[in-house]
Amino acid sequence: MKQLLRTTDPTQMVYAKALLSGEGIDCFEMDVHMSVLEGSLGILPRRLMVRDDDLAQARRILTDNDFELEDL
C-alpha cells in the first residue's frame, strides 16, 4: 500500500474516501486513534492508503477535485 493523503482535517479525509469509493478504489485510513493515544487531541495527521496499482488513478481523482497532494 502507498500513502495517498496525509491530513489533520477529518472532513477532507471523509471527502477523499467518498470520492475514491465512488470510483471503486479501495482505501484504508491509518493513524485514526494516534492523537488520542498521544493526548494531542487531533493534531497528529491521519494517512489515507491505497493499493500500489491504484495510486496513479487515485492521485488523479483527488487532484481533479482540488486536493493538494504531497509528492512522495
From TrEMBL:
Signal peptide span: none
DUF2007 domain sequence ranges: 1-64
Record InterPro entries: DUF2007, N-reg_PII-like_a/b
Database matches in SUPFAM superfamilies: GlnB-like
Protein name according to UniProt: DUF2007 domain-containing protein
UniProt organism field: Celeribacter indicus
